[in-house]
Amino acid sequence: MMKKTKLVLAIATATLTMAGLLVAPQAEAKSKAKKHKHSVTTTTTYSSSSQRYAVPSSNARVEALEAQLQSMQYELQSLRSQVGRPAVDADSAKVQELDQWMNTVKAEPKTKGKNNMVFFRGGYGRMDSNRGGTLDPTAAGGNSGGVLNGVIGNQDAWYFGAGFDWSLNDDLFGMMSGTEVFAELMFDYKELGERAANGITSVVGTKEKLPVPGVNTQTATVNQLTLAASPKIKFFKGQAFRPWVVPVGFELSVISPPSDAITVLNPGMQFGLGADYRVWQNLYVGADARYHYAPDNVDGVNTNGVTAGGYVGIGF
Asked: Does the pTM exceed 0.85?
């Protein structure tokens, strides 16, 4: 488009130059004629054997050339103004739109790591109350009916487990940019200790003085398995450091030994917070703290408590 316009301008300039050269002598003659107050308006008539025609005078030719010259000057000015004005067509508009889109993409934070994660965790746990006791079905001192071995007083525990985060949404469902929502599935094993009195004491005999064979000398390991499913909200999407929070999640605890009523399952909920940091490519380290709460105990066994520790994650 620009090359064509420049070519037209060059042709128009050359034409104007030639027209000026032609008009100049005639204009000078006209000026001299006006000074001497002579008006040349004659028309010369030529005849032939079969045709007669009139030729305009020199003044008429000069006026016609002046009019053409003025018209060409106007066109030349218009062309020059168009050359100085940027041309906007459909192709240039598309190019501008693509440039804007590329600038927007470059301005967005680049995420080097993967959004989903599998993690392995471990740390310290503390129960809110004593674990609870078990029933001794034998009779101490020869009386039947059974007695309690006593309360299992272990409250401190250690735990290990694993889980994974699955990304569901990038902007908190349109409410907050850069805030990601995950579905977290997790399990952990918690151990409070071992108890020598496991609920079965040595044989003490019966009222009939008949010996009852067998002595149970095995220890009981006091532990708990927890399965949990929770929503997890992570902040600062695309950054290396990402804090997160679990507003509330569902968990199911399996206890051992069972309660006095031989109950082993206790449903509850958990609340948590923590953060992780990308140390290299898709490798993460993090720390978390959670509170585990069950509205009711398991027939005398309370599973409420806290856990705190660290984890190692791998993005995928």
From this structure: no
Residue 218 included in any domain = yes
Sequence-ordered list of residues with C-beta below 8 angstroms from that of 54, at least 6 positions apart, any chain: 43, 44, 45
Contact 283, 103 (CB under 8 A): no
Residue found by looking up tokens 């907050």 in the block: 176
* Domain hosting residue 137, numbered range: 117-315
Residue 240 lies in a domain: yes
Is 33 in contact with 39 (CB distance < 8 Å)?
Answer: yes
Question: For 174-219, how does the pLDDT look when each residue is reduced to its tens digit (9 = 90+)?
Answer: 888 889 999 999 999 999 887 655 544 444 444 445 454 445 556 7
- What are the structure tokens assigned to 247, written together? 């507003």
- Give CA–CA dist 156/192, Å, rounded: 6
Q: Integer distance in angstroms from the first to the last C-alpha of the chain?
A: 52
Name the domain count of the chain: 2
For the chain, the C-alpha Rg in angstroms (whole number) is: 50
What is the number of other CB atoms lying within 10 angstroms of the CB of residue 28? Answer: 11
Q: Which two tokens stand for residue 217?
A: 């000398």
Which SS3 state, helix, strand or coil, does residue 194 take? strand
CB-CB contact of 149 with 140 (8 Å): no
Query: Do both 206 and 309 map to the same domain?
Result: yes
